[in-house]
Amino acid sequence: MFGMDEYRKTIRGSEEGEIRISALVAQLQAPASFSLTHDLPNETVLLTDQTTVTLSNIEISVELFFVLLRKTRVTIEEAFSITEYVDNEDCIREHGMARNRPFCLERSLAVSSLALENIGRMPPSSIGCSLEVFDLSDTWLINILPKLRVHEDYGLDISVYIQAMKNTSLEYSNKRNLFVLGRVKSMDLGGYAVSFITEMRIKKGNTMETFVLIECGCDFPRILGEGDNSI
Q1: DSSP string computed for the chain
Q2: What is the pLDDT of residue 21?
Q3: Which is nearest to 62 in space by CA: 79, 45, 80, 77?
Q4: Which of 99, 130, 146 is the last residue of a domain?
Q5: Would you say the C-alpha torsion 43, 49, 55, 61 has a positive or negative sign?
Q6: pLDDT at residue 208 above 80?
């Protein structure tokens, strides 16, 4: 599978290892589609950026989820959720075996255009999770926020700062739609992330402990022009 990328890093500089993995790849043919289940096939399966991986009736670790986003074409169907990655625990489970431990989704790296395409195709509220912290820095993964279905037993801390915007990121960010959040304990948006404030709605009765906007000079006039009660 895509684990070969990590294996290549491990054996880099080893001629014998490179020959061995090249021979293995030559024997494999990547399928056009692959349905990920908790019962993995016994044989090795090669997944590439041309493979459509279907996620349905399954729970996977957040780390595996982001690998799939970067390396394959992801399609989400019903009953899908993500959970924290824990050493010595299965990273793939049936959806009914979901672990409800709250976890933190934290990322600070740029994402590939394939990952953004995958996120753009996902239905709203299609990713179940018990999330307590959503913390991003200089990554357009904020686009995944409307796709999350956060368990409301836990208040959510949201912190996102995006300093720079590339043309590809702007293309995806312009496709945002209105989305609703449940319990939010705090919200801290900075830079271009401020522009998302007009896309969010928080359920009535929610009281935030802190609410911070740090603008970059480009979106505040548009936000203020939305009128009263628009946020």
Answers
A1: -THHHHHHHHHTT-HHHHHHHHHHHHH----SEEEE-SS--SS-----TT-EEEE-SEEEEHHHHHHHHHHSEEEE-SSEEEE---TTS-SEEEGGG-----EEEEE-S---HHHHHHHHHSPTT-EEE-EEEEEEES-GGGGGGGGEEE-TTS-EEEEEEE----HHHHHHHTT---EEE--EEEEEEEEGGGGGGGGEEE-TT---SEEEEE--SSSHHHHHTT-TT--
A2: 56
A3: 80
A4: 99
A5: positive
A6: yes
Task: Tell me, yes or no, whether 31 and 50 share the same domain.
Answer: yes
pLDDT reported for residue 167: 41
Q: Which of 161, 225, 224, 217 is nearest to 189 (CA)?
A: 161
9 has a pLDDT exceeding 50 = no
Point out the domain boundary residue: 82, 99, 116: 99
Answering whether pTM is above 0.70, one says yes
Q: For the segment 90-116, what is each residue's pLDDT rounded down to a tens digit?
A: 888 887 655 667 888 888 877 788 999
Strand 92-94 and strand 58-61: the pairing is: antiparallel
Q: Which of 79 and 4 is assigned the larger pLDDT?
A: 79
Q: What is the mean pLDDT of residues 161-190?
A: 66
